[in-house]
């Protein structure tokens, strides 16, 4: 997605520890036209699989996931990182690690909104190590739903999440790919794959 690649080149900042700051378009401020285009691109890619639900994780996955769900006309469910008292039991749960805040987090999805018969596409903002997606697949497994595919806005190829998730045997579609980044070379970003 060339518009996304251009925005990453214009706004992206390399942070220590291999982190990319894109707070101006993905993680703090959101750009409506760009977010809509993300949804259109994911919807075009995954519509042939006839998903019944989009699954993501709060907080930064919500915008691209909702944009995708709106294009497809299907519900979007997001895993919560704290179980609210309104959540109906039983809830499916798995542990994950927050990459940007550090530490383990528990994820919760109510059985009210995910279950046998659901055909699920996961949408998230970043695909890095693949750990977060792995936790979501655990939740999908508990629910009895079927995982059809994975879409992530930005892939950090140098963290090899795609390879680590190969056993899932699902199509993985990303919109921009960070091949590598360093002070010397800057952000080497290309269209997703
Ligand atoms: O592939 P991984 O190595 O698991 O990294 C990707 C995850 O890391 C971030 O979550 P984080 O909780 O840090 O951020 P958020 O609260 O902005 O969603 C991002 O939103 C992805 O969910
Ligand atoms: O804002 C972010 N920048 C990153 O580099 C990253 N990797 C995983 N999750 C991330 N979030």
UniProtKB/TrEMBL annotation:
- Which stretches make up the Phosphoribosyltransferase domain? 33-161
- Entry keyword annotation includes Cytoplasm: yes
Q: Which family does it belong to?
A: Belongs to the purine/pyrimidine phosphoribosyltransferase family. Xpt subfamily.
Residues bound to xanthine are 20, 27, 156
Positions of 5-phospho-alpha-D-ribose 1-diphosphate binding: 128-132
This protein is called Xanthine phosphoribosyltransferase
Q: How does it assemble?
A: Homodimer.
Keyword terms of this UniProt record: Cytoplasm, Glycosyltransferase, Purine salvage, Transferase
Q: What does this protein do?
A: Converts the preformed base xanthine, a product of nucleic acid breakdown, to xanthosine 5'-monophosphate (XMP), so it can be reused for RNA or DNA synthesis.
Q: What is its EC number?
A: 2.4.2.22
The organism's superkingdom is given as Bacteria
Give the primary localization class. Answer: cytoplasm
- Is Transferase given among the entry's keywords? yes
Q: Which InterPro entries match?
A: PRTase-like, PRTase_dom, Pur/Pyrimidine_PRTase, Xanthine_PRibTrfase
Task: Name one molecular function that GO assigns to this entry.
Answer: xanthine phosphoribosyltransferase activity
